[in-house]
Structures are given as structure tokens and as C-alpha cells.
Amino acid sequence: MTKLAIMGAMEEEIEPLLAHFENVNVVEFANNKYYEVNYNGLEIVIAYSKIGKVFASLTAATMIEKFGCDTLLFSGVAGGINPELKIGDLIVADKLCQHDLDITAFGHPNGYVPGGKVFVETTKSLREIAIKVANENNLKVIEGTIATGDQFVHSTERKDFIQSTFNADALEMEGASVAVVCDALNVPFFILRAISDTADMDAGFDFDEFLKSSAKNSADYLIKIVKEL
Ligand SMILES: Nc1ncnc2c(CN3C[C@H](CSc4cnccn4)[C@@H](O)C3)c[nH]c12
Q1: Residue 67 sits in a domain of what CATH number?
Q2: CB atoms within 10 A of CB 87
Q3: Backbone φ, ψ for residue 165 (5° rounding)
């Protein structure tokens, strides 16, 4: 029986998800809150990690190891790199990397450490369900590479480095760490983001303006996917 983890990083990213559920049980653990719901016979645990790769790793590992989730879906917002991605648009990650992981001084490529890999691929079967749902609902969705790092990117210089180094389509601060955790624990996972800004000098203003609406875009699409699981 599937037990589903649904994760975001910010409260604003899971608020539109929690709105779909009733009879929520709250479990406090490791300085965080985990919301347990039952949905169409599916056990679901929902949480936001707080911002950044470390908090996201802790929450993903907790949802799997402590709550026994066997599938993990992430919903949230991202900065757009690919010019095809407009604010509000949806991107499904096919692979993720860490743009700020750097031991190039020792001859290694950006995003690589010994024992790791630059790109972690998401679970194909979950992506296929997502694309089917997008087609059935006439939703425009791009599949692409998402780069993760512990910084809010708001400069074309940093955005251009990430694009040229990893050929990334979008960027954020949690996805790749969730990917490393799920890949290591052999748990199918899916990372979905809606664009809130374009990671350039206007990113801070756009983010504030579009966080709520873009988080809802992602959440509404994710709920449609959950109904197909
Ligand atoms: N340009 C960008 N660069 C890096 N990440 C992003 C994201 C995705 N999320 C949003 C949030 C920004 S930091 C934060 C801190 N305080 C308040 C709000 N957000 C963090 O969880 C990563 C959207 N646009 C991004």
C-alpha cells in the first residue's frame, strides 16, 4: 500500500495543498510539523522543510525513514532559466544537480563529489503519469533540468553560470537534495515547480509578487497527479 510524502520548502508551497484535505493530524518531530491525511484511501504525509538543501534533506529522510513513505512528490516554485519558461509555467524535473557543490580545485567537475554524481534522475514512471495528466488537462508542462543551490539567485551572472555549466532550465534551493536522499533510499520521487521569477535582478520583486499564484499552479497540478496514483 503506497504511503505518499508530499513536500515543499516554504509554508506558502504546501498551504494550497493542505487546503484540499480535511481531518489533518499534526505530528511534531525534529523541529518540524508533519501533516498526516487520508485521501481516497491513500495515506499521505505533508510537510514543508524550510528553505535550503540541509532542511530539505532532513525532511525528505524523515518522511521516508520515520513516517515510512514509499513515494515522494515535491511541489513548489522556482527561478526560470530556459526562456521558454514564463512566470507561472510548470516544469517537471527529469534530472537535478547541485550548482554550488564545488571541489573543482581537485580537478572534479562542478556539482560532483567522489561517491556522488552530478545529475540525479527522477523516477520515469511518475513523470509519465504527470505528462499524461498534463495532456488530459491541457496544461503546458516542460520536462527539464533543475539546478539546486543554497542561494536565492538574483543576478544574470550567477544565472548564466548555472545555465552554461549544467544546461539547467530552472533553479531552486531544495530539489537536488531531495533527489539524493530518495535515490540513496531507493524511493520513487517526483519534483514539480512553477516559475515565480527569472532569477535575475528583478527576481526578488517578482518572487514576492508571484510566489502565491505560482505555488498554487504547482499544487493544483500535483493534486491532479495524486488522484492518478
Ligand atoms: N531565484 C531563485 N533562486 C533560488 N531559489 C528560488 C526559488 C525556489 N524557492 C523559493 C525560496 C527562495 S528563498 C526565500 C527567502 N525568504 C523569503 C522567500 N524566499 C527557496 O525555498 C527556494 C524561486 N526562485 C528562486
Answers
A1: 3.40.50.1580
A2: 18
A3: -80, -40
The active-site residue, picked from 172, 174, 197, 200, is: 197
Tell me whether 0.90 is exceeded by the ipTM: yes
| Secondary structure letter of residue 14 according to DSSP | H
Dist. CA 178 → ligand 1 center (Å): 16
| 51 Cβ below 6 A of ligand 1 | yes
pLDDT at position 132 is 98
* Smallest CA separation from ligand 1 atom 21, residue: 51
- Report the mean per-residue pLDDT for the chain: 97
Predicted pLDDT at 40: 87
| Surface-to-core class of residue 111, CB atoms within 10 Å of its CB (0-12 exposed, 13-18 middle, 19+ buried) | buried
Given this model, what pLDDT does residue 195 score?
98
- Separation in Å, CA 89 to CA 140, 151, 168, 174: 7, 22, 16, 19
Dump the DSSP string for 134-163. Answer: HHHTT--EEEEEEEE-SS----HHHHHHHH
Q: Enumerate residue ranges in the chain where pLDDT < 70.
A: none
Environment class of 57 (CB within 10 Å of its CB; exposed 0-12, middle 13-18, buried 19+): middle
Domain enclosing residue 205, as ranges: 3-226
Rounded to two decimals, what is the model's pTM? 0.98
Structural domain count, the chain: 1
Question: What does the pLDDT read at residue 123?
Answer: 98
